[in-house]
Specification:
This protein is an alpha/beta fold. It has helices at residues 8-15, 74-92, 127-131, 133-143, 157-160, 206-214, 230-236, 250-262, 276-282, 304-318, 339-351, and strands at 2-5, 20-22, 37-42, 48-54, 60-67, 97-102, 111-116, 119-124, 148-153, 166-171, 179-184, 187-192, 220-224, 242-247, 269-273, 287-292, 322-332, 357-363, 382-388.
Amino acid sequence: MLKLLLNPRSSQRVSNGYPWVFRSDLLSSDAKNFEAGPVLFADAHGRVVGAGYAHPKTQLMGRVLATGEAITDEEFFAYKFAQALVWREQCFHGAPYYRLVHAESDGLPGLIIDRFGDTLVVQVNTAGMEALQDIWLPALQRSVPVKNIVLKNDGNTRELEGLPQNITVVQGEIPPNGRVELIENNVRFYADVLQGQKTGWFFDQRPHRAWLANLSRGKSVLDVFCHTGGFGITAGMNGATEVTCIDSSAAALRLTSDNAALNGIADKVSVIEGKAFDVLEKINTRYDVVSVDPPAFVKTKKDMVTGLKGYEKLARLAAPRVEKGGVMFFASCSSHPTEKEIAEAVTAGCLKVKRQALLVYSGTAGPDHPVHPQLPETRYLKALGFRVV
C-alpha cells in the first residue's frame, strides 16, 4: 500500500486524531501522482501514524480513517457501521429515522448515510471513499440490514473531487416518485430520496422543529424556506391554528401539501411558491411564529461579508411579519460564521425595521450529527430562537 510521508506538524496532528491531510503536509512532492485510494500516512522516519485514503488532485487530499497501522478492510467498516448504529438506536429508542453516518464525526470521512426505516440513502463525497466502495458497501449491507439502498451521488462536492454525479439504487426498489416515509417528533412525512435536496430530508433540525412546535399551540405560523414542511407541519400537528409555507420549489411544495394531507391537517396548511426574499417583501400578514431556515449563504470564507449581509437582509424582511412579542426562529447551515456573528446579523436586520430581537434559544444539530472535537466545521448548524418585540 502507498505510504505518504508527512511533515512533523501534520504527522503529530494525525497521531492525535486529526482526520485531514493537505497537499502541503506532504514531505515529498513526487508522491503526488497516484490514483485515489487507500494509503498509509507516516512521519518523516517512515513510522505509520494513520490509515485512510488520498486523492492527489485536491488540496484537501487525504482523510484519516484510523490512527496507527490499521487495516481498513470489510471488517473495519462493519465495526464502524455497527458502532454508528448502536448510538442512533440508543438516541431514538429503535425508531429507524436518523442520520446513521455523519462523515468524520463517525470516523468515516466522505460518507453520509441517512436512514428512512428500511431505506438507506448514501452520499459518497470523496474520490477516495468511492474507490473503497467495494469494501464498505458489503460491510454496510450486513451491518445494517435494510431492504433498499440508494447511492445519491448528486452533490456539488463531487465535482471538486472530479467525480460524476449520479443516483443509483444498488439494493431493493424505490417508487418512481422517490417517496419514502419517515416519522419525526411523532409526525409523518414523505421524503423524496431520488430527486429531493441532499438525501431528501434534513434530520439535523429535528430538535428545533420540536422546540418551535411547542410554542405554536393556538398560534399562526409562517414557515419560510419550508422545503417539504418540516417546521410548519410539525407546528400544525402541535396545535397551530394556521400554517403558511413558502418555498421556491414547486416539487417541494407539492410534498409539503401531501405531507399536510398525510397528517390530516390539509385544511390549515397553505403554500406560496416564490423566492423567499420576494414573497416576504410582498405579503403584509403578521404571524405569531415565523421560521426562517435558508440555504447556506456562506459556503466559503470569502463569502463571509456578503453572506452575513444576506442573513441581515432576510431578518429585516422577516421581522415585520412577526407579531409583537412573537417568535422568530432563524437557522444557518453555514459552518464558517460563528453563532455570535449570525445572531448579530439577525438582530441588526431587526433593528433596521425598529424591531428588537431577544435571543431566547440556541442549539445545533441533533445527536445523530455528532461533532468531531478537532473539526469545528462539523458543528455547522446554528439554530437561534428570538422573541421579537
